[in-house]
Amino acid sequence: MHALLLSYVKEACRRQSYCQLQKLNENERQAFIARHSQAQVCLGEDVGVIASQSIGQPTTQIALSSFHSAGTTAVEVLEGIPRLESILNGSFKQSTSTIRTTKHTSPSHFVYLTIPDVMPSYYIEHDLDSWWYTIAEKHNFYTTPTSYNKGVVFRMIIDSKKMKAYKINLKLIRDRIVESMYGNNIIRILVSPEFEHTIDIAVQRAVKSKDIEMYVYDLVKSIIFPIQICGIKGIGYVLINNNEVKTKGSSLLSTLGLDFVYTKLIISDSTVDVFNCLGIEAARNVLVRELSKVLKGDVCFDDKHINLLADFMTNKGKMVPVNISGMVERGHSYLTRASNERTIVELARAACKEVAESVQSISDNIIIGSRSKIGRCIIDILHHT
């Protein structure tokens, strides 16, 4: 029966989307939306019947099945669904921030870059007879390896276009490497005037290794590659317009530490980021704001429903996502968890542990096909004498 209901729901959704986007004109679409927005649930009817048709599907997909009618165009649906999913899951996915600064800034102040981000290629150089290495050795910048070792140099080619786009230079990259290598006398970092956009990492003293090339590769990959050149971790792209910076990704705590930023004019849409920085009440306000933005369109969502969802995710004093991990954290029964995600897994675990549970919640009643105690006649009036 479950497979039949699920196939019916999928086919109905497909036909509805096709009619809305392909066949109906503007007037017909508006009439269609108005007709469906006036639909009401009869008193005493199980409002969870829609959920019973989606047993085994992720919680976000259940919530989103009613969201398809919120937008009037395909663009709103495609943009709204992933965003709503990231909000309910409490993730950093698709997070953004808007920052006001006191001066004109460059992308290097915000965009997080490491060595591999600006280095399209690298290789081992065996020819150490260049005039540049002779000068470097003369001024104690570099020491030629002794005879029992094979002399090699790890050469990094820096992308000139990225350097120009992010407004960084070879000196900045070299300084970051030198800072990270402080106290290490095995290698030396040389910016060669002979080769533009090239940084050489040379062996400073002899290293007793059978395979000197592999030694240098391992040394560079483990120490040099993870080095941060510039930016804030978590921010991957920026759009700068005068003193306003819009970022893809959010790191509120690090952004507030910049001296050229108006701390009171920073807006982040990441509830987790705001919670980690400002606390649970601020995170709840962000939840209400972001849910209100996503749930827009011709179908009205009552503010009390959005506030109720925000309260549900924050009433434990921390961010609890609306997914299977959140249900486990809240201690829901196996039946309740099986009604949302991983149906077979949850039921198998309960069977292996010989768990005996009473049917109490609405989800428990839905998954076994019994009538839920909702609607009329659920309130008993007690007379105190």
From TrEMBL:
<protein>
    <recommendedName>
        <fullName>DNA-directed RNA polymerase</fullName>
        <ecNumber>2.7.7.6</ecNumber>
    </recommendedName>
</protein>
<feature type="domain" description="RNA polymerase Rpb1">
    <location>
        <begin position="14"/>
        <end position="330"/>
    </location>
</feature>
<dbReference type="GO" id="GO:0003899">
    <property type="term" value="F:DNA-directed RNA polymerase activity"/>
</dbReference>
<dbReference type="GO" id="GO:0000418">
    <property type="term" value="C:RNA polymerase IV complex"/>
</dbReference>
<keyword id="KW-0808">Transferase</keyword>
<keyword id="KW-0548">Nucleotidyltransferase</keyword>
<keyword id="KW-0804">Transcription</keyword>
<dbReference type="InterPro" id="IPR007081">
    <property type="entry name" value="RNA_pol_Rpb1_5"/>
</dbReference>
<dbReference type="Pfam" id="PF04998">
    <property type="entry name" value="RNA_pol_Rpb1_5"/>
</dbReference>
<keyword id="KW-0240">DNA-directed RNA polymerase</keyword>
<dbReference type="GO" id="GO:0006351">
    <property type="term" value="P:DNA-templated transcription"/>
</dbReference>
<dbReference type="InterPro" id="IPR045867">
    <property type="entry name" value="DNA-dir_RpoC_beta_prime"/>
</dbReference>
<dbReference type="GO" id="GO:0003677">
    <property type="term" value="F:DNA binding"/>
</dbReference>
